[in-house]
Amino acid sequence: MEFEPLKLFPVGYVRKDERLQETFIEILPEFLEAVEGLREDDWIKLILWFHRSDTPEGRRVLKVHPHGNPKNPLTGVFATRSPCRPNPIALYTVKIHRMEGNRLYIDWIDAMDETPVVDIKIFVERHDCPKEFIEEREAHIEEGRVIGEVSIIPRKSEHLDELEEVSPEEYDAVILEIGPKTTTLTARELKELIETLKEVYENLPAEIKDRLE
Questions:
Q1: How far apart are CA 84 and CA 63, in angstroms?
Q2: Which of 11, 65, 157, 177 is the Cys-Cys partner for 31 at CB 3.0 to 4.6 Å?
Q3: Shortest CA distance to 9 belongs to which of 36, 37, 35, 30?
Q4: d(Cα 120, Cα 105) in Å, to the nearest integer?
Q5: How many angstroms separate the CA atoms of 104 and 33, rounded?
Q6: Is the residue at 7 inside a domain?
């Protein structure tokens, strides 16, 4: 079977300052605009290319002894974090501790200095730590709104006639995402939130409210 080549190119590199004991991601200048929106204390997912493991021999490895310990039974690489695999991609979840120019300072990771960074994605609990949230197909993603750092995603309203016997306390109406954290609000909780926000708004100084009109 022949495979068509995929096009991957670095958006940055892992850098390790051994003298200062610091690890950071250096974003290449042409991709610096893509960093806009990231903030210190955000959690992100790094997708790296383990270039030093990118050899014909390494790509042919399909089973390894986990942790390099021969006492561990041979295990398929898809069930391990081995750098040797058909495509030497690595995935890390890290916190941005500070941002300086084109540098994202993170905790130490076991990737080597100069390891290419293929992509960066914001960590979202709903996607990355699956729980009992509204199913993706039931979430009205297109109607989602971002206000400040809060994402509000309503539930689709189709087939509500099938939910006649579901109480407002049981019906999850909306997904709220604040940074990486995700929660759902029932219809009852959503109503209470709306009422509370109305009270907060009414108590704003008149001078502020006038400027919002």
A1: 9
A2: 11
A3: 30
A4: 13
A5: 13
A6: no
Q: Mean of the per-residue pLDDT values for the chain?
A: 86
Tens digits of residue pLDDT in 77-98: 998 888 889 999 999 999 999 9
Task: Write phi, then psi, for 29 (nearest 5 degrees).
Answer: -55, -40
Residue 117 placed within a domain:
yes
Instruction: Show which of 74, 107, 123 is a domain's final residue.
Output: 123
Please list, residue by residue across 5-18, b when 16 or more beta carbons sit within 10 angstroms of its beta carbon and e when fewer do: eeeeebbbbbebee
**Containing structural domain, residue 31:** 12-123
Q: pLDDT tens-digit profile of 41-77?
A: 999 999 999 998 889 998 999 999 887 888 788 999 9
Across 37-41, 134-138, 153-157, the highest mean pLDDT is recorded for 37-41
Tokens found for residue 154: 């309503």
